[in-house]
Amino acid sequence: MSVFDVHAHVFPRITRAEGRLLSDADEPWLRDHGDGTGMMMCGAAEYRPVDEGLWEPARRLADMDASGVDVQAVSSTPLMFGYEADPSRAAAWCDLVNDRILRYCAADPARLLPLCQVPLQHTATACDVATRAAAAGHRGVHIGNHVGERNLDDGAIAEFLAHCAGLGLPVLVHPWDMMATDRMRGHMLPWLVGMPAETQLGILAMMLGGTFERLPETLRLCFCHGGGSFAFLLGRADNAWRNRDIVRADSPRPPSEYTDRFHVDSAVFDPRALRLLVDVMGVERVMLGTDYPFPLGEKDPGSAVRACAGLSDADRAAILGGNAERFFARAGAPADASGDVPGGAPAGRPPAGLSS
């Protein structure tokens, strides 16, 4: 049984001078203390203390060995997105970050899958950066769930998602820049309340905004943090769609009929919550995610999956690894000795989410 973590972050070694490629103030950079600890920085301000797994691949691989993780999809830390910058500066910044992620993952290309980031604030530039990154070897794209006041139903963002579908690049969506932080002071409430709300907002915006109707079904899309509060509140959204025309104005189908258009990770930390998530999404749409190496992540990768009641061994194998193998499979992947392509799709048929 392979174990494949789709939600794991990196902040490569980037100096303050390099951070100024993006911004002249509050530039993101990494201060490495040289003792296995460091600090994510915004200009001169300390943002968050971190450990070396975030920037040192040997430490990450050792942690993966210790926790039984075979493969990680490696994505940037959302602090690095740079969506507020001038698009040309943001493009140069993303190229730098993407190159550093490739170098990081080169430590073990079979186990570390690089995901690029893009200047999502400008669609044409984002498409160009994604195309370059795909050609350089990136296996997917990591984006935030909104750009300023524009949610994922925004036409320009949908255009970028369609471009990713054309490239065959999976897209990982992560919450960031959380709402109402002025009311969520202390206790990490922006992470505990804001992140689930942001993720649910991203999903419902796409459903009720008719975005899934406009996007090709070949798009492979995954929302982090178990889709946030989405699964628990899906019944509320369906009820609103049935009873209020303003809710269904742009969506010809109720929200529950779009759950086959995206994936979620398993980072809900409670087997009971995971059971609901699987019931709502279907076992084939849930993939292991840990949020490595941050302290709010799952310390024992897959523990909630293994403890979740009512899952068969095949279900657990799918969530722990098989679904992710298909999600990140390349078109034309070679068949193994059993006649199956990696991830279990029958030979002669493209992996799920890929066109022939």
UniProtKB/TrEMBL annotation:
The keyword DNA repair does not apply. GO terms for molecular function: aminocarboxymuconate-semialdehyde decarboxylase activity; hydrolase activity; metal ion binding. It comes from the Bacteria. Coiled coil: none annotated. Its EC number is 4.1.1.45. This is 2-amino-3-carboxymuconate-6-semialdehyde decarboxylase. Monomer. InterPro entries: ACMSD (IPR032465), Amidohydro-rel (IPR006680), Metal_Hydrolase (IPR032466). Gene3D superfamilies: Metal-dependent hydrolases. Residues 5-328 form the Amidohydrolase-related domain. It comes from Actinomadura harenae. Residues 333-356 are annotated as: Disordered. GO terms for cellular component: cytosol. Keywords: Decarboxylase, Hydrolase, Lyase, Metal-binding, Zinc. Pfam families: Amidohydro_2. GO terms for biological process: secondary metabolic process. Pathway: Secondary metabolite metabolism; quinolate metabolism. The keyword Transit peptide does not apply. Belongs to the metallo-dependent hydrolases superfamily. ACMSD family.
